[in-house]
């Protein structure tokens, strides 16, 4: 009798665990969908306020949209926690967290950290974020079995060439003494962003389920070149609109890439090891 009761309790516990897992599986997609809606509204408000020359509201909208993407990144990490995509999603979430910190640096909201130029803090935070993005892509390459060296190598070379050309055209001619200290860090930073775009494209060339990731990384690099033009060559009308239209959407696509990419990790363990 005791054995029957024990077995019944075990079955009940198993059923409860399955129910809990099913509930989690249904809640998380609704959560990330809702967060996407909040992100879209905040970014739209921020950009519209910038056009209307309301800088305070514009900053709230833009920084708020980045914070929402951090929450979405961790929601995806939670959704993927029991799958082969868990490490990939975790690194993406960490990368976006660093990216949000970079946004706060660039907005001058972390002035308590002494730096000669807040742009350096932003570049460092974004740089660490992109190291994590690259680490996520390399993990995805292994865990999804996308091992073509040719596809990866060609993609990285093309994006590095694009980045170097952009730096030479936009940054190198700068004659402003206030930005001289940033010229060479800008080259290294641009190369790092191109590295993210390169490895993400290397994945997408082999499996189109990584296209969101690749497009997002590419938009991030383009937004950096637009921002560099404003920093090194002089500002221009609707600069914030131009930068954040690329940057905000790019970050969103990177964070929401698991929407399509996580199914790419469903390969036999023997192919991943």
Number of strands: 0
Number of contiguous helices: 10
Q: Give the helix/strand class.
A: mainly alpha
Q: What is the helix/strand order?
A: HHHHHHHHHH
**Beta-strand content bin:** under 5%
The main sheet comes to: none
How is the secondary structure organized here?
Blueprint: H1 2-51, H2 55-79, H3 86-106, H4 118-143, H5 149-170, H6 183-206, H7 211-233, H8 239-255, H9 258-261, H10 269-272
Describe the structure.
With 273 residues, the protein is mostly helical. The chain has one domain. Helices cover 79% and strands 0% of the residues. The protein is built from 10 helices and no strands.
Features of this protein?
single chain, 273 residues, mainly alpha, 0% strand, globular, disordered C terminus
Short description:
This protein is mainly alpha-helical and 273 residues long. Helices cover 79% and strands 0% of the residues.
